[in-house]
Design goal:
The chain is mainly beta. It has 1 helix and 8 strands; from the N terminus they run E-E-E-E-E-E-E-H-E. The model has no long low-confidence stretch (mean pLDDT about 90).
């Protein structure tokens, strides 16, 4: 018998793979505002420089909270002003 209990089975979540662009040295993920993107610098986390357009990268909404998800890296960043600032992530309207 296992002692494992899935504490998250009752949470509703939606994971959308929606990496929009990969440029040196940034990744761009659309946010919920039309025409706006999260601009994620490669140096925000080790391994981001190896992300490509076919990876499982996108946004997840769980329990009413939005996260940026880099599935292959097992990295989940909550999209709050404080967390975005901590990782150097900006909201932008143009891809540069």
């Amino acid at each position: 018998m296992s002692d494992f209990e899935n504490k998250y089975r009752n949470l509703d979540y939606t994971f959308t793979i929606n990496l929009y662009a990969v440029t040196a040295p940034h990744l761009y993920i659309p946010n919920d505002k039309e025409g706006e993107y999260y601009k994620v610098p490669w140096e925000a986390y080790e391994g981001l420089e190896s992300v490509n357009i076919n990876d499982n990268v996108g946004t997840m909404v769980m329990d009413g909270k939005t996260y940026l998800v880099f599935y292959e890296l097992l990295l989940f960043i909550r999209a709050t002003r404080e967390e975005l600032q901590r990782y150097g992530i900006e909201k932008v309207s143009q891809i540069t």
